[in-house]
């Protein structure tokens, strides 16, 4: 199947939604009833960022917003805040995807880490200004660091198992994108 065909595009968009639902399902399974001293990585944001940087057309902003809003509701977070921050972060990374196409993976990873840092700081700041009860700062920082460390593994899985690879220089021009 041609990688630029409309059926492939919609199949991969559905695969993104399916992957997000699978991540949420495994996040909600009660494997341990005792509270943890550490926070697991946010694989949902890591996957969204990996898809946005590799193939921005596979993860439109509407899909990311819907997935993250559903995650806010299911994970009992303040509805809409993390969804907004994730959409803003992914759209920022989409604008940088063209420049990161020729960069090494370290440059891409640094951009993702800085975006995750901004999302974490903005989330804590908004929740603090609105006097919303939030997790300890150490747990937020552990989750941010774990997400940063998990990002290369998420990229490896999405690239090798799901076939979400960076656009070639000619493919971006054919789609009307910036080269």
Automatic annotation (TrEMBL):
Parts of the chain that traverse the membrane: 109-131, 137-157
This protein's UniProt keywords: Membrane, Transmembrane, Transmembrane helix
Keyword Membrane: yes
Protein's UniProt keywords contain Transmembrane: yes
UniProt name for this protein: Rod shape-determining protein MreD
Provenance organism: Antarcticimicrobium luteum
């Amino acid at each position: 199947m041609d990688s630029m065909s409309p059926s492939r595009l919609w199949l991969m968009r559905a695969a993104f939604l399916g992957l997000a639902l699978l991540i949420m399902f495994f996040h909600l399974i009660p494997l341990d009833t005792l509270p943890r001293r550490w926070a697991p990585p946010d694989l949902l944001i890591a996957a969204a960022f990996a898809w946005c940087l590799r193939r921005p057309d596979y993860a439109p902003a509407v899909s990311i917003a819907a997935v993250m809003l559903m995650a806010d509701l299911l994970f009992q977070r303040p509805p809409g805040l993390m969804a907004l921050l994730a959409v803003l972060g992914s759209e920022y990374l989409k604008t940088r995807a063209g420049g990161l196409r020729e960069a090494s993976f370290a440059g891409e990873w640094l951009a993702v880490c800085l975006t995750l840092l901004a999302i974490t700081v903005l989330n804590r700041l908004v929740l603090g200004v609105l006097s919303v009860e939030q997790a300890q700062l150490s747990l937020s920082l552990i989750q941010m660091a774990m997400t940063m460390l998990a990002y290369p593994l998420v990229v490896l899985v999405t690239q090798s198992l799901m076939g979400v690879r960076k656009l070639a220089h000619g493919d971006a021009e054919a789609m009307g994108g910036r080269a």
